Request: fold
Amino acid sequence: MTTSVRTRLALPRARGALSEAVLTALRSEPGTSVSVPAGEVDPYGDDLHLALYTLYELHYQGFDGVASGWEWDPGLLAFRAELERRFLAAMRADVPGGDDLDAELNALLVQPGEPAGVGAFLLERAEWWHVREYFTHRSIYHHKEADPYAWAIPRLRGQAKASLVAVEFDEYGGGHADRVHAKLYADLMAAAGLDDGYLHYLDVVPAPMLALVNMMSLFGLHRELRGALVGHFATVEITSSPGSRRMVSVLERLDAAPECVRFYAEHVEADAVHEQVMRHQVIAPLVAEEPELTESVVFGIQVTNLLEEQVDRVLLEAWEAGRSSLLEPLE
Reply:
């Protein structure tokens, strides 16, 4: 099912007390009191991450019927800060940290002898329904592809800024609206028989993918985390080309529509170049000028790997059991 009519995004369905508190507030006028409910909260769970995703969306496209004034409402920002604190603390606890940036970057370039994880499953065993579910998970990232990184631009200087802008220029289609990567992904969704509307599948995508996108928004919106954002962006660009090449093989095997193949074929070529730019023209000058950011860049790399592994785990557990990996199966 596809749509060519762009409408504002409706508020999602709550997944617990935190997201319910956010949604209740957003249905009211800015200034309405909102507080974090008492009780234990899973820092990687559906409730916290739907709440955070909803709050961050106020800085992107917003929601139908939600007042624009909520974006910078002090009470809502305080609520968000508490959720961010819990999420950030969990991520810091779950990665080793350190300042060996070269080791982290070199590890990203090492390709395993045999494909692993979701990539291996798709390459060797995927049926078309698996691929459509994969597209659905990734849609809540690719519909805003490159957008969180734009927040880094005013927070960088010199060569690091200029080179990051060059990569972003390619992500946004080199000035051509029909080549913007988010538009190419919408074309992919439509060609796969899925709804191509902005964040249409937000209600059915489980927490791990929400957490991955929330990490990008968190890093982008906080200047003190600009190093982590650059580390994350570099990880995406360094690992994208081989992963995209694998997806081209998957889609050609399944005789997918040209629009589906085109999205990944575009990333094979573009991200092979971006990999070098990010490493040598963004990260290198950044840490040379601000060496105190080295640990933050390392953190961004490690957390990206952590959260991607959580996404893989959810998909593989479901698919190995022969069931949908989404909260509601696709029609």
User: Anything to note?
Assistant: Residues 258-289 form the longest helix (32 residues). The two ends are 9 Å apart (CA to CA). DSSP finds 13 helices and no strands in the chain. The mean pLDDT is 93.
